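To the team - 5-O-phosphono-beta-D-ribofuranosylamine complex, inputs and output below.
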Amino acid sequence: ARLVVLISGSGSNLQALLEATADPAYGATVVAVGADRDGIAGLDHAAAAGIPTFVDSVKAYATRDDWDAALTGHVAGHRPDLVISAGFLKLVGKQFLDAFGDRYINTHNALLPAFPGIHGPRDALAYGVKVAGATLFFVDAGVDTGPIIAQTVVPVLDDDTEDTLTERIKVAERAQLVDFVGRLVREGWTIEDRKVRIP
Ligand code: GRF
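Output:
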């Protein structure tokens, strides 16, 4: 299966996928990595692995719709079976969702529907919850609202800071991403009434 991975940051989730896909039994390869900004470590990882990269920065386009069209075109050019947002910090638009809405997944560093948005671990700590975690889900038009594929729980410790909790979540998040992307591409899936089933 062909994976296109979208990133905005350090790309540790991407790196975990690259390691997993090195084994042919995994059933997928990363055929391209896209980003919404230059100068991020994830793009260097991809380039070092010989994978084509592209950058579509919102501010390079006159309108958000133009950006959405460009991103959709670049991703489509790589004919992905699955598109993975791995710390991609932009909400895609209608054109992208029309093209890939049935196979665009995102990993979030909180147990949805609690703590959507870009500060999951910080918001979880501030709320005082005793468990946190990561959620893998299919992206829909909302913010972190789509059908859930998998969730992994990690404890919140009394002496946690935003950094320590974020790191604990990321370890679980990477393992979950690698595990479930593999299952999705090898086994397929159905979605009915928001319920994602992997046969
Ligand atoms: C992930 O924890 C994701 O949930 C959050 O940003 C992080 C991406 O990290 N939105 P990386 O770029 O894969 O290291």
